[in-house]
Design a protein that fits this description.
globular, mainly alpha, 0% strand, single chain
C-alpha cells in the first residue's frame, strides 16, 4: 500500500472499484502496478515478459474484483496471490523452453559508472542464480519482501502464513543465500560481498 494511503482509504477505493467505478479501478492500477511489476520481474527476469504479465494480472483483477470479499487480509494480499498464480502459470507454459526465473533483472542503476554497473550486474546474477535454488516458500518471501517491497505483515497475508513464520522463512532464505554466495570460488582480484 502506498505510504500516503491508509487502510480506510484503500478500502474506500476497493469498495468503489467493486461496484464498477472506473476512476477507482484506475487508482488501484496506479497504486499497485509498480509493486506488482517489481514482484513479477523478480520472478520472471525479462522486463517485456514482466510488463505483459503484470497487465494480465490487472486484467484478471478487473474480471474478479466483483467477487472480492473483505476478510482479515488486505486487498494487496488478494492482489499478490493473483500475481503469484499468474507467475506460476506463466512458468509452467515456459517450462518446456527451460527459461530461468531470476530474483531480479531490472534494478535501478542510476548514477553508476560502467565499472560499478558491471560489478553490480555480476553480483546480481550470482544472487539470482542462488535464489533460484531456494525452496518455493523462501523464493516467494524474498520476492514479496525485496522485489515487491511488501511488509512482513503484507507478505504473511499474501502467503496465508503468520508473520513469525514469514520472518523465519526470510531469515533462512537470507542465511542460505549468504552461505551459497560465500562458498563460491573467488575470482582473481574480486572483493567478497
Amino acid at each position: 500500500m502506498s505510504p500516503s494511503l491508509d487502510v480506510h482509504g484503500e478500502r474506500a477505493i476497493v469498495d468503489a472499484a467493486i461496484v464498477g467505478d472506473e476512476a477507482a479501478l484506475a487508482e488501484l492500477y496506479n497504486l499497485y502496478f509498480p509493486r506488482v511489476y517489481r514482484y513479477i520481474i523478480a520472478r520472471m527476469g525479462n522486463p517485456y515478459d514482466a510488463e505483459d504479465l503484470t497487465e494480465e494480472v490487472f486484467l484478471r483483477v478487473l474480471d474478479a474484483i466483483g467477487r472480492f470479499q473483505w476478510r482479515e487480509a488486505p486487498f494487496s494480499a488478494w492482489l499478490f496471490r493473483i500475481a503469484h498464480n499468474a507467475v506460476i502459470s506463466q512458468r509452467r507454459k515456459e517450462g518446456a523452453r527451460g527459461r530461468p526465473s531470476p530474483l531480479s533483472e531490472a534494478l535501478p542503476v542510476d548514477s553508476q559508472g560502467p565499472e560499478e554497473m558491471v560489478a553490480n550486474r555480476l553480483a546480481l546474477n550470482e544472487v539470482m542464480k542462488a535464489a533460484d535454488t531456494l525452496p518455493e516458500a523462501q523464493r516467494r518471501v524474498i520476492g514479496y519482501r525485496f522485489a515487491a517491497g511488501l511488509t512482513v505483515a503484507e507478505t504473511a497475508r499474501a502467503m496465508g502464513k503468520g508473520e513469525g513464520n514469514v520472518k523465519v522463512i526470510q531469515h533462512k532464505a537470507i542465511a542460505k543465500l549468504r552461505e551459497m554466495l560465500t562458498q563460491r570460488p573467488k575470482v582473481h582480484g574480486e572483493k567478497r560481498v
